[in-house]
Amino acid sequence: MSREELEAREHRYFTDFVKKLEQDFGSKNLSYFELNLETWRQLWRVLEMSDIILIIVDIRFAAFMFPPSLYKYVCEELKKNMILILNKIDLVSPSLVVAWKHYFLSNYPTLKIITFTSYPSYNLRSTTENKSGLQIRRRRGKLRMAAEGAQKLYEACKEITQNQVDLTSWNNKITEEMYNTYDDDECNINVVTETIDTGYKEHVKYKGGSLTIGCIGQPNVGKSSLMNAIMGKKVVSVSRTPGHTKHFQTIYLTKNVILCDCPGLVFPSTTPRTLQVTYPIAQVREPYTAVKFLAERLDLPKLLNIQHPENDQIWSAIDICDGWAKKRGFFTAKTARPDTYRAANNLLRMSLDGQICLSFKPPGFFDKQEYWNSHPEVTEISWIQAKDKACKEQEESDSERSNSSSGDENSDSDDESDDSSEDISQPLVSNKFELLQLNQD
Fold this sequence. Notes:
The protein is of the alpha/beta class and 441 residues long. The chain has two domains: 228 residues, P-loop containing nucleotide triphosphate hydrolases (Rossmann fold); 93 residues, Conserved Hypothetical Protein Ylqf, Chain: A, domain 2. It is built from 16 helices and eleven strands. The chain has a seven-stranded mixed beta sheet, sandwiched between helices. The protein has a two-stranded antiparallel sheet with strand order 4-5. Strand 2, helix 5 and strand 3 form a beta-alpha-beta unit. It is globular and about 70 Å long. Possible regulatory or functional link with the histocompatibility cluster. Keywords: GTP-binding, Nucleotide-binding, Phosphoprotein.
């Protein structure tokens, strides 16, 4: 089959697939999903050329980000092994991590599951005074390799390959980099961006004694950060903007271990479109529905330590945004009113980054919560999260006195922006001429 014939057939199949989805679910019930055929082709080529498929999900929304149809296609039709990476486990409790792990093992028995955190808890620290559950996720300039997760991935791949590929160099690399740190400014980007050959090539397993690992995941699951952690240094640029990886990338972990990074791809689902987080937060026109969704499941007034603008007991999404705007000093330029939109935007970014942490639980979690809390694997997960007993006691002590002070409102100045300067902090002044005086001083 020629390249032109393959592309024509893929175009026809994809068009029929989209039409069938709209007929079965209706265009209004379907979520946003990838409609660019070229992006799907990159996914198909990664699946074809890879020996092992990594599917990365955010542990907070694990079931939402795991596509069962992809699992069925890879494991049953392609007859390949799939490894599920439960990423960002430092944002949830160890018992929840264990519960999700066993949920996937029971429903998808051929999966191998690895827990991973590319930014462990030593990169998380609470605000100075107000420690009522918020955590500032600090990227301190040095990208620390999550060696525990990388070691688990190596062991899983070694078990799958059964010594058909020599992975000694990979093991040595992990051992060496447990003691190394890299500064983001010093690390060169070492990524090969491939020009995709859309022609079909028959897959040869472990061709040339090499192991090819394909990395797949929806936008914003931390795929680029995870690949940097596996490499032990920065090889893929990282952004909180969804869809930051736009091209197929080939990265040589060692001479015979290759990582193939596929662009983040949104699969079809029936998730409400306002809650998908599939495009930059700065471009969201109506963020209040998402804030309402958070407030219905978390006690935001207590977490944020804010006062109701009207001293009422009933909160709306707008009230929460107004209260946060006043607390943070977000005011409109001319009228000096609370900048409700900017506050809502900021709250969504905090949620995305894990400062406001909403997580979903597997079915029956609360019925067996005591069982999960005492599960033997909880100790191992706590160790991977880099949370020792002293840190836990300090967090509990901080939580007890969380309501004793209002805290410093400008403590999250390290937040990164989504290609905009919206979060650049400025001194609070009464007029523009006072700002000039401050700059001169």
